[in-house]
Amino acid sequence: MRYGLISDIHANLEALETVLSCLSKAKVDEIICLGDIIGYGPDPEKCIELVRENTLLTIAGNHDHALLGLIDTRFFNQFAKKSVEWTRVQLSESSIEYLHSLPLIDKRENFTLVHASPARPEAWSYILSVDDASDNFAYIQGVACFVGHSHVPIILEKNNDNKVSVKRNFELELDQDKQYIINIGSVGQPRDLDPRAAYAIFDSDSCEFELKRVRYDMSITQKKIIERGLPAYLAERLSSGQ
Ligand code: ZN
After folding, report:
1. pLDDT, tens only, 16-62
2. How far is the CA of 204 from the centre of ligand 1 (A)?
3. Domains, the chain, ranges and CATH?
4. Which of 38, 57, 204, 231 has a CA that sits 20 to 30 A from residue 221's CA?
């Protein structure tokens, strides 16, 4: 089965539409979303509708949980906090129910799916390095665990000697004798200094993985962020990809 993988959309409709159209052209069989559909961006309701229509499965992210009051936003930065409050009044009952229905983790075929970390999904910890990843491999089913959360793509590979290393190429055939934790980057708010929307394609039969980037018309998103009274910084950061 060929899967399209998306994460951290953050209510960026233009980025989401562009990525979905790429995945449709790529003729993937199913699409899976790793959470944070909302927060920061100007189109939360429309993004939830599109994700519901187009995905086989969506995992809950910390912003989705913050909106539902399931996590304390005291530790959110001021921009995240403001956008959660703004988003709460934009959503329909049906969308809120949908967010409530999302699981924290899922394991299927030969891979695991989680927003933050497989060891403790509800702790929302970041996997940014070899050290962060090491303890997490024990909680993975199959050859790979796909994650989001940091908005920074990374591939961490554990070899047969339990040594973990960072892979530098984002197009590879996963070795079934090894295990991988792969951050697929963010559709709607990339933070690796590349402002293009990120998404991935994974073939669960051949184990081929590819991270892709695509330009979208962010000027529309940026205009809407300002018009809807969200912090201007949330528009600016889209241009620099951070
Ligand atoms: Zn996020």
Report:
1. 999 999 999 999 999 999 999 999 999 999 999 999 999 999 999 99
2. 25
3. 2-240 (3.60.21.10)
4. 57
Q: Which of 153, 166, 149 is nearest to 115 (CA)?
A: 149
Give residue 187 CA to ligand 1 midpoint distance, Å.
10
Tokens read off for 116: 């933050």
For 139-186, write each residue's pLDDT tens digit. 999 999 999 999 999 999 999 899 999 998 999 999 999 999 999 999
Q: Tell me the C-alpha distance between 168 and 175, whole Å.
A: 15
From the CA atom positions of the chain, what is the Rg in Å? 17
Taking the centre of ligand 1 as the mean of its atom positions, its distance from the CA of residue 2, in whole angstroms, is 24
Report the separation in Å between the CA atom of 32 and the middle of ligand 1, taken as the mean of its atom positions. Answer: 15
Contact 221, 12 (CB under 8 A): yes
